[in-house]
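re: ur question from yesterday

yeah so i grabbed the chain u mentioned. its 346 aa long if i counted rite. heres the sequnce exactly as i have it in my notes:
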Amino acid sequence: MDATKDGAVAAVINFNTAQLTARSVRALVDAGIAHVLVLDNGSAPADFERLRAALEGAGPGVRVIRSDANLGFAAGSNRLVAEALADARCSRVLLVNSDAVVDARGLEACLGQMRAGGFDLMGGRMLKPPAAGAAPVVDSLGVTLYKSLLASNRMSTEDAYLGPTGGFAIYTRAFLEEVVRLHGEVFDATYFCYAEDTDLCVRARLLGRAVGYTDAVVAYHEGQASNAGRYDDFILYHGIRNSIWMAAKSIPMSILLRQLPWVVLLHGGIVLRHTLQGRVRTVFRLYRDALAGLPVVWARRGAVQATRRVTPHAFRAHLDRHFYETRFLRDAIRDLFRRPGPPPTG
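ran it thru and got these structure tokens back, copy pasting raw so excuse formatting
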């Protein structure tokens, strides 16, 4: 394996996005990442064949692995990380979404700052693909964890920075090996997808690992390409259920108790908003399943809290002072007061 760029190996998951994935892989190779691992995560056979054809000639270091079942982002990423670390020359793993295109100069700046600062986790500025004549729009500046203990994309450098989003993140080998040794896996595979990057960032902060950020543009990200860009019941279910599990497993007890009024207020608003939107079955199912999973989550909590190296007070510095992300709060309040539209006619 010829892994240039500080021994970085890139990991990309494909799920029915063959052309976007191939574009992402080629951008990584063009940016100097010599070794790229691609997991086809149970895509339709036709999409998998398109992916293989599109990556022919992409480079000797590009390898495609096929999973017949959809492992989800968490378990799929764990498989790619394990594949990367199997080669002793891999010193960093770069996780990139299939619908993200890395910027070569931003990637170089990110890796340089990571090396100079001794960071174990590194993220950067992600923008939406530029429209003709329009100003750049922020997609994500990492993960922000709010005082309601729900996370969202960090949209401003003034927001608290918990760590890198799974859409673009670089992890050192030492950190990945340690988190597997202490917690059993990198990402929590029970999450399937959503909030697994938040959970990993929380655990990294509890371990006292150095988490860095560069404001250089590291990638252009379309967002939710495998889900056609929709906020649907699937996202609602996994996003909220996993956020509950993340807090129950990884947040220190004194902070859980301190933030409990905000947590209750948040989830009361979620129930009200989505019930009024006609998602009562999804809301019922997500909270039912979140509660049913708590015994397993609580058992895993023991390992996370037993290995914590920072005080709860020190960890609180990584919580944002706001209740939740302003943009989503505005939309939620608007939904509460929006009258149902007229019934269809004709």
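noticed a couple things. Residues 233-337 form one domain. also The longest strand covers residues 211-221.
anyway ttyl
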